[in-house]
Amino acid sequence: MPRIVNIAAAQLGPIQRRDSRKEVIERLLNHMYNAAKMGCDVVVFPELALTTFFPRWYIEDPEELNQFYESEMPGPTTQPLFDAAKKLGLGFYLGYAELNKQSDGYHRYNTSILVGKDGKIIGKYHKVHLPGHDEYEPWRRFQHLEKRYFEAGSSFDVWSAFGGIFGMALCNDRRWSETYRVMGLQGVEMILLGYNTPVHNPPAPEHDDLSLFHNHLVMQAGAYQNGTWVVGVAKAGNEEDCDMIGGTCIIAPSGEIVAACSTKGDELAIARCDLDLCQSYKSTTFNFEKHRQIHAYGLISHQRGVKTP
Ligand code: CDT
């Protein structure tokens, strides 16, 4: 019996600051109902899918900042997503900003969760690679303050779900080969990944024309080199005067894109994903047990920056 998971990559168009959580949840629910009609098992939403991409602003007032975070999941406004999951028998991946109260105080994370067809949370992931800066930089057209507003996560975990092995990542993580390999070493068969990527990169505007190419390049390479499906989902379009790339797609373990969005608005890309397609890569070219040469890889986990001879 092939292990088929029908995936809906649920791209979102822009979310403006004035849009209420309730309005946004309606858009997500709309995606869920459409995905269910088309026989999907899992819907994948973008990073920070409940709000505008607020790290583009330097916000000093903690109360104003806190409005972008969820202090409970599910909470009163997000509960309908979990109810719909259960009613429709449809899992989902959701990115959001998490305000987490622990015994030593409040912690802030750029978070994603994986929710099962029963509406229960299967796993949670805290974004590891936080791009940008932590202080106001007036020369930028817009800020990228993820290093100020979030703490970095500490692991790339995987979970048994939907008949396979699932992993999660968020946006900038997709540019780092380590992200995929750490999950690859745990046998991952499908990596779900939401993103918000401005077309313009203030420190390197010479990359702007390549932003869509780089988006696909890294995810296709990560899929192939680890014999895994990768589902990359954008929040796209013009959000608060900032243009963000689309490029939502579903990538097979061959590295090929098998489904993609063609707009920068709310759109579903759907694919029938056979998890057993991973095996031909995991057991041949990328048979890790047989071919990896870990004696030569020490620097990867012990040295952060470059040291030239
Ligand atoms: N959200 C996020 O991580 N965005 C970054 C923008 C960095 S500019 C290259 C990304 O890697 O897409």
Number of strands: 14
CATH class categorisation: Alpha Beta
Q: Name the ligand types.
A: 4-methylsulfanyl-2-ureido-butyric acid
Main β-sheet, spatial strand arrangement = 5-4-3-2-1-14
Mind describing the biggest β-sheet? 6 strands, mixed
Computed Rg: 19 Å
CATH superfamily: Carbon-nitrogen hydrolase
Q: Count up the domains.
A: 1
> How is the CATH topology named?
Nitrilase/N-carbamoyl-D-aminoacid amidohydrolase
Q: What's the SSE pattern?
A: EHEHHEEEHEEHEHEEEEEEHHH
Judging by the overall fold, what is the CATH architecture?
Answer: 4-Layer Sandwich
Beta-strand residue fraction: 25-35%
Estimate the global geometry from the Cα principal axes: globular
Q: Total number of helical segments? A: 9
How would you state the average pLDDT, rounded?
Answer: 98
SS class: alpha/beta
Percent range of helical residues: 10-25%
Distance, first to last CA: 54 Å
Task: Provide the low-confidence segments as ranges.
Answer: none
Description:
- By secondary structure, the chain is an alpha/beta fold.
- It is built from nine helices and 14 strands.
- It has helices at 21-37, 62-66, 79-88, 146-149, 177-184, 211-226, 277-282, 288-291, 298-302; strands at residues 4-11, 42-44, 91-102, 105-115, 121-126, 158-161, 164-170, 190-195, 229-234, 237-239, 242-244, 249-251, 257-260, 267-274.
- The strands form three sheets. The protein has a six-stranded mixed sheet. Strands 6-7-8-9-12-13 form a six-stranded mixed sheet, covered by helices on one side.
- Helix 1 (21-37) packs parallel to helix 3.
- Bound molecules: 4-methylsulfanyl-2-ureido-butyric acid.
- 4-methylsulfanyl-2-ureido-butyric acid is lined by residues 47, 131, 171-172, 175, 195-197, 201.
